[in-house]
């Protein structure tokens, strides 16, 4: 099967379509190109993990089951951090289908698929209940919906909806 990938031509700036080999992993390419800055930001990731561990510890100290909601999961890094910190379960929401597929693959390859469910929807469309996308409401919200315009990705409405319906 042939795979075609759009690449920016460094000379013209135009988008050129390039044929890739069968081994080409589109999801991995997306993860590398769009999310690399965040994935390689060691200070950022250490702070997120520190905060997630503290939140998980507080909920566990109350004797509650820890259910995490990760809105805009991207590659699933924050979801995996939550499970490594001791969360019982995590719902990882990602609206961009190729990224949701990449996150699912990353979860499977790293042994997290039994504790993390990737949901390919906008968070405002996620349902909770026995027949819903989420079986139960979460008690911890982790997310990073900020783009270069700070709130350009609809962060505020997503957070408001999550607090009212999902957490």
From TrEMBL:
Molecular function as annotated in GO: histone methyltransferase activity; protein-arginine N-methyltransferase activity
Alphabetized CDD domains for the sequence: AdoMet_MTases
UniProt keyword annotation of Lipoprotein present: no
Keywords per UniProt: Methyltransferase, S-adenosyl-L-methionine, Transferase
InterPro entries per record: Arg_MeTrfase (IPR025799), SAM-dependent_MTases_sf (IPR029063)
BP-aspect Gene Ontology terms: methylation
UniProt superkingdom: Eukaryota
Entry-linked Pfam families: PrmA
The keyword S-adenosyl-L-methionine belongs to this UniProt entry's keyword annotation: yes
Protein name as catalogued: Protein arginine methyltransferase 7
């Amino acid at each position: 099967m042939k795979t075609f990938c759009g690449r920016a031509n460094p000379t013209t700036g135009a988008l050129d379509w390039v044929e890739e080999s069968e081994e080409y992993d589109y999801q991995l390419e997306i993860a590398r190109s769009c999310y690399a800055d965040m994935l390689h930001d060691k200070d950022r990731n250490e702070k997120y993990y520190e905060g997630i561990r503290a939140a998980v510890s507080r909920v566990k100290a109350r004797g509650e089951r820890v259910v995490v909601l990760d809105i805009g999961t991207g590659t699933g890094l924050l979801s995996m951090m939550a499970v490594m910190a001791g969360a019982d379960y995590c719902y990882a929401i990602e609206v961009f289908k190729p990224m949701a597929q990449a996150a699912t693959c990353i979860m499977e390859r790293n042994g997290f698929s039994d504790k993390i469910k990737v949901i390919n929807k906008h968070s405002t469309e996620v349902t909770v209940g026995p027949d819903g996308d989420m079986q139960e409401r979460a008690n911890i919200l982790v997310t990073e919906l900020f783009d270069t315009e700070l709130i350009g990705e609809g962060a505020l409405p997503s957070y408001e909806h999550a607090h009212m319906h999902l957490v």
